[in-house]
Specification:
homodimer; alpha/beta; 434 Repressor (Amino-terminal Domain); Rossmann fold; six-stranded parallel sheet; 16 helices; 12 strands; elongated; DNA-binding; Peripla_BP_I (chains A, B); LacI/GalR-like_sensor (chains A, B)
DNA sequence: CTGAAAGCGCTTACAG
DNA sequence: CTGAAAGCGCTTACAG
């Protein structure tokens, strides 16, 4: 395969100049740059990423850690992140935990990330104290998405989970419901803070309406269709079913709809159902929900992560020359999470309770 | 960060020996290996992938090209592939085309893949002749998933699309349907051979039942929920609706269900609907379908791809020593595609037509 | 079984 | 603006 020496020879310059010209560094004359580009084009030259990264000391790779990839939220986030990273010439190294403890250890062992990536994105991945300090020791830039996966010093992009849950619950209250069940996440799963915040939003909305939250209407299960389905089946088995169900995510809400249907109950005539997400298929199912901007969270987090990386790539003098620009940023960009808005989407799965 | 020299010093051996011991090469004494492993553990040493790859001449990375990542089939395939690759120490470099022509050019420009990956997996990505020859020139091992993305000399894992379509159509015929519409894929999208084969299966099944396929019941649209929805709306607008719809994939079938409901038609009482896939949510929707093993196709394709890669990593003498083992494989593993089975799953979206 | 030395293909000070 | 040379951190023949 053609290498940088070949291009240098054909262009009649040194390899150092080829390197500079190809990377668009300003310290190359226009004429030289043209010759180098032409030579590279003619030889179909492409830089060897490994050599470049080894010599340059940057990997041009970002690790993205997700608990799952096939669930709607995470798939959508990864798609948006990948898009943004590729645009900037960064590779995406995907770590899909998938509930695998072994992989988790590998990923979060500091030395495995070190030398391998320039930055880390944690999506709804809660770190234990030991993992947290190990990661901090790496001194890598990072960003998190979703509550519960915060890392001190790292920016965080998320929605306001409590507010989203309150919006969903209030919608049911406004329709006249009083017996409202909640399907929450498994406390061992994902960044459980997300579940907890959504539950708190649910409980607060109830209390504001003068209703005491009932433990018997509050179930913990997996953040999946099957989880929602199982929990709903259990709820129905307890007798005296609720008139409405607020599920902590749309996939659980879909499971609830299935379980209700299997039990011969109609949605929304017998039981109303609402979730959070605005999953692709929620429209098909007529599921009312509180939508969250998954792709936008991914894009934004990727940009926030790339920003300091670009800085690192620049020659130090250039950065030092414009200290004023740095000052325009907030003193500590990680201090405040970036909260993206959510929105109530009313479809066919919510209606007033039957008068009886 | 600790490097190989540090480990060598601590263990009292050369870097070459450290390298060999850590990679598990057989030419290291047990005692030495123990000492090296202990030293590496103590120093929390992790090899620098870039240095290792540059020196070793292998990237330990596989390129996976998918047209989308958020659609069920592709997400499921990627999850399974990533799992298999990680187990073998390979990284997954994800190329999500997402309809982006620019990215497509970058990925399929040979020099960009070269030096960057050891192997290529194409998922439902149809190559044009120029791309095909460019890729062949790289002489990289590869594998494809899905029909329509075949590359000469590369193994292919897929289902029998015609057979799956016939199964779905026959199910409708067996129920007594005669006016059966088909929602097919956009000919410009994905590996269009998939759509074409499914359409042929549909047409053949009709003909075997003595029905002449009607162009007015055969629509082309996108392989998405919205595509299925739009096509169905158009179908209904033409008047004299079919009594059943066979959609080329479950997501289109879901869109069809939505459009039917929006038009005031009930599924299956007024119109039956069936798809292909067995999407996660098909159970929730009660959608009848012909299931295909997406994860298994991904796992199998990954294994097939890794097999020759492992061979390349081995020292040549070891391979030569056991020529008999090579002979046990089919002479040309790429000559015959690996066909995985599909299965009819009857749920609530298909029923006999109304007697009228 | 082990080591010394060359080399993988780039980038980066340094000097001019 | 450009080049000569060192170096990034490994692996691989080669020799013993």
């Amino acid at each position: 395969m053609t290498k940088i020496d070949d291009v240098a020879r054909l262009a009649g310059v040194s390899t150092a100049t080829v390197s500079r010209a190809l990377r668009g560094l300003p310290t190359v004359s226009a004429a030289t740059r043209r010759r180098v580009l032409a030579a590279a084009e003619q030889l179909q030259y492409a830089v060897s990423p490994n050599a470049s990264r080894l010599a340059g000391g940057r990997t041009a790779t970002v690790a993205v850690v997700v608990p799952w990839i096939t669930r709607w939220f995470f798939g959508t986030v990864v798609e948006a992140v990948e898009d943004t990273l590729h645009e900037s010439g960064y590779d995406l190294l995907l770590y899909n935990l998938g509930g695998r403890e072994r992989l988790r250890k590998r990923v979060l062992r500091p030395s495995s990330l070190n030398k391998r990536v320039d930055g880390v994105m944690l999506v709804a991945t809660h770190l234990r104290p030991a993992e947290l300090s190990a990661l901090a020791a790496l001194d890598l830039p990072g960003v998190t998405i979703s509550s519960g996966s915060e890392v001190p010093g790292w920016p965080c992009v998320r929605i306001d989970d409590m507010a989203a849950a309150r919006t969903a619950t209030r919608h049911l209250l406004d329709l006249g419901h009083r017996r409202i069940a909640h399907l929450s996440g498994d406390p061992d799963e994902l960044a459980f803070t997300t579940h907890r915040n959504r539950r708190r939003g649910y409980q607060e909305a109830l209390r504001e309406a003068g209703i005491v939250p009932s433990p018997s209407l509050d179930l913990e299960t997996q953040f999946t269709i099957d989880g929602g389905s199982r929990a709903t089946a259990e709820l129905l088995a307890r007798g005296e079913p609720p008139t409405a169900i607020f599920a902590a995510c749309d996939e659980m809400a879909m499971g609830a709809m299935r379980a209700l249907r299997d039990a011969g109950l109609r949605v929304p005539q017998d039981v109303s159902v609402i979730g959070i997400d605005d999953h692709d298929l929620s429209g098909v199912l007529g599921l009312s929900t509180v939508s969250q901007p998954a792709a936008e969270q991914g894009r934004l987090a990727a940009r926030i992560l790339l920003d300091p990386l670009r800085g690192r790539a620049l020659p130090a003098p250039v950065r030092r020359a414009v200290p004023g620009q740095l000052g325009r940023r907030p003193a500590d960009p990680a201090s405040e999470p970036v909260i993206l808005p959510t929105r109530l989407v009313v479809r066919d799965s919510t209606a007033p309770p039957r008068p009886d």
